[in-house]
Design goal:
This protein is an all-beta fold. The protein is built from one helix and 19 strands.
């Protein structure tokens, strides 16, 4: 299956197709994450793109518009596939906002990046059974993951960066209701070009679902169980986590992580009552004495 193609929408109004990318450039201490999502049955497409800058500031944008031609081009953010399941072009040229205490301050941002994968795409179906698939249907029944390297140029105001950073991409399609799960945890870590980790833990009314992979020495090893203990601030912001992971071969792995920076995004429900909050954090991971970096994402339903 060529998973990088667009898919025929299902009948549910919340049917969604989305593409997401992140990376962390260690040399510049700069992290970026971005997403374009399409909901054709609601006549909408949305985007967000955020940059965690070396000075600790956050610059970003989150917008929604009508579906239009349904292309992956929303509010100055554009994704273009160069090679199926291998290379993507990520571009932006426009205004974002620097988040300051006095309020958002406009800043010009331009980037041209190429994301090249370092492993074969991983299908979450390789981690879950039929029961897990059924419980996941309100979030994104089809979910593919891949880690890789982002390279290119980024200009923020008068600052220029030559980017080179390991990161993750995912492509999902199916029903996506941000307020359906009680919580989800989505974790990605890249330790080197040969060692990477992806973990998802989904909490829904019917139970819990674990999925993900370890990529070790050229092989994607499915993860089938994830026990995650998270230390939270009083306001619910994640600060650190410890994981016990079990892979499909019976292997057991311990991973810890410390949160370095965070972006928080609210997702109000269409009913005007429910709201979920996403904590997208840059985290430092430790596995078998090795340090890695990536995103620790927590989506929590508040009401």
């Amino acid at each position: 299956m060529n998973s990088d193609t667009m898919h025929q929408p299902g009948a549910d109004k919340e049917w969604n197709e989305s593409f997401y990318f992140n990376f962390y450039d260690q040399a510049h201490d700069l992290c970026m994450f971005m997403r374009i999502g399409l909901k054709p049955n609601m006549d909408e497409r949305s985007m967000f793109c955020f940059i965690m800058m070396p000075d600790g500031s956050v610059i970003g944008k989150k917008e929604m518009e009508v579906l239009g031609d349904g292309s992956l081009n929303v509010s100055s953010l554009r994704f273009h596939m160069l090679e199926p399941e291998k290379r993507w072009k990520l571009e932006f040229n426009g205004a974002m906002a620097r988040m300051e205490d006095k309020g958002p301050v406009p800043v010009k941002v331009k980037f041209s990046l190429e994301f090249e994968s370092l492993n074969k795409m991983y299908d979450y179906r390789d981690s879950v059974d039929k029961e897990g698939e059924a419980m996941s249907r309100s979030v994104a029944s089809e979910h593919l993951e891949q880690f890789g390297m982002a390279t290119g140029t980024l200009t923020v105001g008068e600052e220029h960066f030559d980017i080179q950073g390991l990161g993750e991409r995912d492509h999902s399609w199916g029903v996506r209701d941000w307020n359906a799960p009680k919580m989800w945890i989505w974790l990605t870590a890249q330790f080197s070009r040969n060692l990477a980790l992806n973990v998802t833990k989904l909490f829904v009314e019917g139970g819990e679902v674990s999925a993900g992979f370890f990529h070790i020495n050229g092989r994607n090893i499915p993860l089938v169980k994830a026990d995650i203990r998270t230390v939270l601030d009083p306001d619910g912001t994640p600060r650190s986590l410890a994981m016990n992971l079990v892979d499909k071969d019976g292997g057991k792995h311990k991973v810890t992580a410390e949160v370095l920076r965070e972006v928080m995004m609210p997702f109000p429900g269409r009913d005007g009552k429910s709201v979920s909050v996403m904590h997208e954090t840059l985290s430092e991971y430790t596995f078998n004495g090795q340090k890695g970096y990536g995103i620790a994402e927590y989506l929590v339903r508040k009401s």
